[in-house]
Specification:
Length: about 260
Amino acid sequence: MGLLQPGATSMNAVTIPRELIERLAAARRVAVLTGAGISAESGIPTFRDALTGLWANYDPQELATPEGFARNPRLVWDWYAERRARIAAVRPNPGHLALAALERRFEHFTLVTQNIDSLHQRAGSRTVVELHGNIARVKCSREEIVVGDFALDESPPRCHCGAYLRPDVVWFGEMLPAGAMAQAEEAAEHCEVFLSIGTSAQVYPAAELPLRALSSGATVVEINPECTALTRHAHFALQGAAGEVLSQLQEKLASA
Ligand code: BJW
């Protein structure tokens, strides 16, 4: 696309094109899709980062499946327990905070996330569409009902029905929550500007959202230090860390 901004060579030198600021300043409807990269600056490893320590020999793409859980429920439960503890110990970063501030600026602003870490909510974002669930919730692996109280006497703990409890997240091969997906599609199809932030754009159906926005005539912006499958389609590819780029973008927009 003619407007492609090839990006800077260093993470500190991203220039935000004036034309992008002008388009954002004029927009009434903005949609945002975030992925693991937005939480990286808070200290949460991205999904495709190599696992370390106890988990170094495992592939997250195998742990995050119903088959992985059936094969080794304790391993998968313990992996999520460790991630839950890590999430509780970190704080939202400037990228999360800038998105919370941007929400207040636009008439229609939909923040869709693939993340399960609640960092957007903790940063003050009021409406967050969670496509892949939330690690803080636990549900019965048989009845699919969210469970509030359970005894942690086993790993994984069991539901009153006898089945294992599991995190209320969406694993590979599972359907996304229909309501959340419908809200995300509606926002992608009706926005004027779509921001894809910190996602490798490899996992469907979330990866379809920026393409839907593009087909509907929106300006599509990617914020990611690396190239992804989306980069060549984006009108603007801002190749830097989300915290830095979003803070700059928010500042420029405030004075536009
Ligand atoms: C920074 C940064 C910084 C670093 N600043 N950026 C159509 C075509 C092909 C395949 C499929 C298809 N439809 C369905 C499929 C199958 C499958 C799929 O997509 N597979 C692909 C691998 C090809 N999808 C599904 O199974 C989905 N279900 C579904 O479609 O149901 C219907 C159906 C079922 C069966 C068959 C057909 C249809 C469900 C997907 C669920 C994904 N779940 C996970 C786990 C959630 C729980 C958990 O966290 O444990 O979600 S997998 C994992 O990937 C997680 C993430 O949300 C998701 C996306 O990852 P994300 O966020 O993009 O992270 P990374 O790590 O990949 O990338 C990080 C990026 O950040 C990188 O680009 C960095 O450069 C960047 N970054 N630092 C900005 N500071």
